[in-house]
Structures are given as structure tokens and as C-alpha cells.
Automatic annotation (TrEMBL):
Xref: InterPro entries: ADH-like_C, ADH-like_N, ER, GroES-like_sf, NAD(P)-bd_dom_sf, Zn_alcohol_dh
Source domain of life: Bacteria
Domain Enoyl reductase (ER): 7-320
Cited Gene3D superfamilies: Medium-chain alcohol dehydrogenases, catalytic domain, NAD(P)-binding Rossmann-like Domain
Entry's Gene Ontology molecular function annotations: metal ion binding; oxidoreductase activity
SUPFAM superfamilies in alphabetical order: GroES-like, NAD(P)-binding Rossmann-fold domains
Extent of the signal sequence: none
Key words of the record: Metal-binding, Oxidoreductase, Zinc
The name this protein goes by in its record: Sorbitol dehydrogenase
Keyword match Oxidoreductase: yes
SMART domains membership: PKS_ER
Length: 323
């Protein structure tokens, strides 16, 4: 099969590699759509030691089962493979499983390829009529669905929410907030082209800089500068939900957070139920028309990464097509 391989920082190759073999309880899936995630970009830049080269990246995928009695079944993929037996898994917090694996991170190759093998429990059937390019968005949407769900446990019934970052995770957070009944959502996005895209296509309230205070602040970027914004804009008694993994240190005003009893929640991926709930919301149309991505072929993947690196992409998401 053909795959897009991360070979070294800012170097991707498109070439033949062995086709994966489905193990017990797994299906071989023909990948029809796979999105480029911010974590893929971090690996591409050489900033993620968990993803050493050479490696097939990509974990936001949807496709069709090609073997066995379920041949032809259209599925979207939960890329987080967990043990199912530990205390975290038994408590429904699979994202905290000590044995968790995710495709695109050793020992599991990713989905920037024509085929991928996944366990049955990681697959959600996609109804006819839902394009697989949109079904591939279930994974980034689930990241933000999980984050927003946790925020609403701290501040139920918020009046105002701020999302820092208008990329796919930030936009997904805005969509999740709206789907869960929050009406006053503002998105901060410094890139003018992306800001215009979001305002035109997604009709979100998008600004270059935020002012005022918010019940919920979602940091979908994770840099010191965005954490500084988050800790300044959370209201007393509010909550900051940190999703982005841009850099490790700096930015938070811990003194203000302490004196104003601002809750900080770090969030990682999603539970199995979050993923399934998100997929159903996507299928039901509760997350909008999902027209905020552009598609390119997998053999154009290296150019797509370079364009993202250069800030030339207005759409929050690029979805690659292997066929």
C-alpha cells in the first residue's frame, strides 16, 4: 500500500510500505479520509518525542471494512486503543488507561495510508448519507466534546464562553458549546484569513482579541501566550479548560487563579462514550454542516504540511484522501 511517512523534521515521503495485518478482534479498513491534526504538525516539526521517525502519522480517520462478514461497513475510527480491564477503563475513563495506545504513535502506525487495522470496539458505524470526509471529523470533535463536558460540570449553565484558537479543535469546542446549549460563544483567532473563513462559513463570533470575562475559557492552542489570555479572561469562579499541547511551560497567572478560585482542567482525548456521543451528534446534524475543511490527495500530503507550516491554509482542517 501507499503511505505518507514522517522521515525527519519537516520531511515526509510518499511510498510503498507493507499492508497492515488485522489481528484477533480487529478489522482491516480501507482509509477513505484522514485529517491532519495539530499533533501531526508537532511531530512533523520534530517537537514530539513520542513520535520518532520513521513513522506513519494520522489518527483522524474514516473508511470501509474490506474483509470478513462486515465487509463494506462504513466506519469512523476511535484511534485510542485501551486495555478495557484497568481501573480507569472500568470507570469509563479509558483516556486515562495506563496501557493506552493511539495510532500514529509507536507501536501503532497511523492512518496516513491506504489501509489501517483497528479493533472492533474502536469503530462506529457511519450511516449512509454521511460523507466519510465529515465522519473523519468525529475524532477532533470528540476531543472538544470531552473538554466542554468537563467544563460544564464545573460551571453549569454558563452565560459566556471564550475559545482561544480558531483551528479545528477550537472550532470544535465552539460547536460543542453550542450543541450543549451555550449561546454566548466567542472565538479568538489572530490569523485574519482564518478569522474571515470562520465568520463566513461557520458564522461564529470571531475576534482578533478578546475583552471582558467569561464563565468558561477553552485554550485550544496551549502556548504560554494563550494560557496568559485564558487566565486573564476567566471570571472569578470560572473554569479554564486546557486542550492544546503547543508548549509545556508559562503563561498562567497562578496568583489570580488562586485568589479568584478559577478552576484549571487539563483534558486529553475523550472517553469511549464521548467519542460515540460526538459521532451521534455529528450524524444528527447537531454540530452544524461541517463545511470547514478542505480536501487534498494523500500524495499531496507533504505540500499540505508545508502550507500549514507557512500559515497559508484558511480552513481549520485539511482532510487527505488516500484513493
Amino acid at each position: 500500500m501507499k503511505a505518507l511517512i514522517y522521515d525527519a523534521p519537516e520531511r515526509l515521503g510518499f511510498r510503498e510500505v507493507p499492508e497492515p495485518v488485522a489481528g484477533p478482534g480487529e478489522h482491516l479498513i480501507r482509509v477513505e479520509a484522514v485529517g491532519i491534526c495539530g499533533s501531526d504538525m508537532h511531530a512533523y516539526l520534530g517537537h514530539d518525542d513520542r513520535r520518532p521517525a520513521p513513522l506513519i502519522l494520522g489518527h483522524e480517520a474514516a473508511g470501509v471494512i474490506v474483509e470478513g462478514p462486515d465487509k463494506g461497513r462504513r466506519v469512523t475510527i476511535n484511534p485510542l486503543v485501551t486495555c478495557g480491564d484497568c481501573a480507569a477503563c472500568m470507570a469509563g475513563r479509558e483516556n486515562l488507561c495506563e496501557a493506552r495506545q493511539i495510532i500514529s504513535m509507536p507501536p501503532r502506525e497511523g492512518a496516513f495510508a491506504q489501509f489501517v487495522a483497528m479493533p472492533e470496539r474502536n469503530l462506529v458505524t457511519v450511516p449512509e448519507g454521511v460523507p466519510l470526509e465529515r465522519a473523519a471529523l468525529a475524532e477532533p470533535l470528540a476531543v472538544s466534546w470531552h473538554a466542554v463536558r468537563l467544563a460544564l460540570q464545573v460551571v453549569p449553565g454558563p452565560d459566556r464562553a471564550l475559545v482561544v484558537g480558531g483551528g479545528a479543535i477550537g472550532l470544535a469546542a465552539a460547536l460543542a458549546l453550542s450543541a450543549m446549549g451555550v449561546t454566548g460563544v466567542t472565538v479568538v483567532e489572530p490569523n485574519a484569513a482564518r478569522r474571515d473563513f470562520l465568520a463566513a462559513v461557520c458564522r461564529d463570533h470571531v475576534v482578533a482579541e478578546a475583552d471582558g470575562l467569561f464563565d468558561i475559557v477553552v485554550d485550544a492552542v496551549g502556548y504560554a501566550a494563550t494560557r496568559k489570555v485564558a487566565s486573564a479572561r476567566a471570571r472569578p469562579g470560572g473554569v479554564i479548560v486546557h486542550v492544546g499541547l503547543g508548549e509545556d511551560m508559562g503563561g498562567l497567572d497562578v496568583r489570580r487563579m488562586t485568589l479568584q478560585e478559577i478552576t484549571f482542567i487539563g483534558t486529553y482525548t475523550y472517553t469511549d462514550q464521548d467519542f460515540r456521543d460526538t459521532a451521534q451528534a455529528l450524524f444528527d446534524g447537531r454540530l452544524g454542516r461541517l463545511e470547514w475543511f478542505e480536501t487534498r490527495s494523500l500524495d499531496e500530503g507533504a505540500a499540505a504540511f508545508a502550507d500549514l507550516r507557512a500559515g497559508k491554509v484558511a480552513a481549520p482542517k485539511i482532510v487527505l484522501k488516500p484513493w
